[in-house]
Design goal:
This protein is α/β, with parallel strands linked by helices. The protein contains twelve helices and twelve strands. The strands form two sheets. Strands 8-7-6-5-4-3-2-1-9-10 form a ten-stranded mixed β-sheet. The protein is globular.
Length: 318
């Protein structure tokens, strides 16, 4: 079993002050709000994860900063030996420098802001919170002042796909953010409901992703960005920047996640179950490694976007 690279993903709540159309979670209902992980359940999950050797902890929601007991959870995680504790957030509450410092003092070692455009107009429209972008920008300043390393998540949808190159240029090249994950959306939860309005084919995103990396290259920032929920055959030249597409042993750390309902599952097994190989996989050079394509994507868009690769793009001559 892996130890130092093992990750535990702890989802503390469903409650959120944003209304992102791509959210993996289902629509908020009174029942879901009651399913917030109790502090006692969080304690049990942290103890179990620490016993299995997990040293990295990611705290998710919903929006975790809505939890008043978040500092207490951070204190416990540090006592249990977690060496990297990342708070994944929309960044709004970090516009308060005192709050930012309080989480650092409690044990947070990293922050990860979900920001989905390089300007306020697009980002605020996506999250449905006026002023969210400017507050997140203040949060970046406060995080740096507190000495908290900061990463970013960007989820591609129809509303912001063309904005990706500007986003990467602004935050990676100009602002020095060196840890960005660009997600192709999962057609689950709210994204399934909003798929007709905001859903993308891989082909719809490819040119924007390529342009984004083209803007990173001159500044030597290519290595600052990872692509999640992509498959190599849609952007083979960027395979080395993709995560979560392959089977264990290809650089994916051991990971488990605990949900607000209280149950824990293996992330790799979950991803393997969600994906299916398409016809092109049978003759693809990566067929033995690639997890395939999410079932929901195949059901909605079919298999036309995927073609077998004749060679492993990561082994192609430079």
């Amino acid at each position: 079993m892996k130890t130092t690279d093992q990750v535990h993903e702890l989802f503390l709540n469903y409650a959120c002050n944003a209304k992102c159309p791509f959210c993996y979670n289902p629509p908020l209902t009174p029942e879901l709000l009651r399913l917030d992980l109790s502090y006692e359940q969080a304690v049990q999950s942290l103890y179990r994860a620490a016993k299995t050797g997990a040293k990295r902890l990611n705290l998710h929601g919903g929006e975790v900063t809505l939890r008043d007991d978040l500092p207490k959870i951070l204190v416990l995680a540090r006592k249990l030996g977690f060496e990297q504790i990342t708070v994944v957030t929309n960044g709004i509450r970090f516009s308060d420098p005192g709050y930012t410092r309080s989480l650092k003092d409690a044990g947070a070692t990293n922050l990860r802001f979900s920001i989905h455009a390089g300007d306020a107009a697009i980002h605020d429209a996506i999250v449905a919170i006026p002023g969210a972008f400017e507050r997140a920008l203040k949060g970046i300043v406060n995080a740096r002042a507190a000495g908290l390393p900061l990463g970013m998540n960007f989820v591609l949808i129809r509303k912001n796909v063309a904005a990706l190159p500007d986003f990467l240029e602004r935050f990676c090249v100009k602002d020095g953010i060196d840890d960005v994950i660009v997600y192709f959306p999962h057609l689950r939860g709210m994204m399934e409901i909003n798929a007709a309005a905001e859903g993308l084919r891989y082909a719809d995103a490819a040119s924007s992703v390529r342009e984004g990396f083209a803007r990173l290259e001159p500044a030597g920032k290519r290595g600052c960005v990872l692509l999640a929920n992509f498959v190599p055959c849609v952007l083979p030249e960027l395979t080395d920047r993709m995560i979560d597409w392959s089977h264990p042993g290809d650089g994916i750390p051991g990971a488990a996640q605990t949900h607000p309902e209280g149950f824990t599952e293996d992330i790799l097994a979950m991803k393997d179950d969600q994906r299916r190989r398409v016809a092109a996989c049978a003759s693809c050079a990566l067929g033995g490694r690639c997890l395939g394509v999410e079932r929901e994507y195949q059901a909605r868009f079919g298999e036309a976007d995927f073609a077998a690769l004749s060679a492993d793009p990561e082994k192609a001559p430079a």
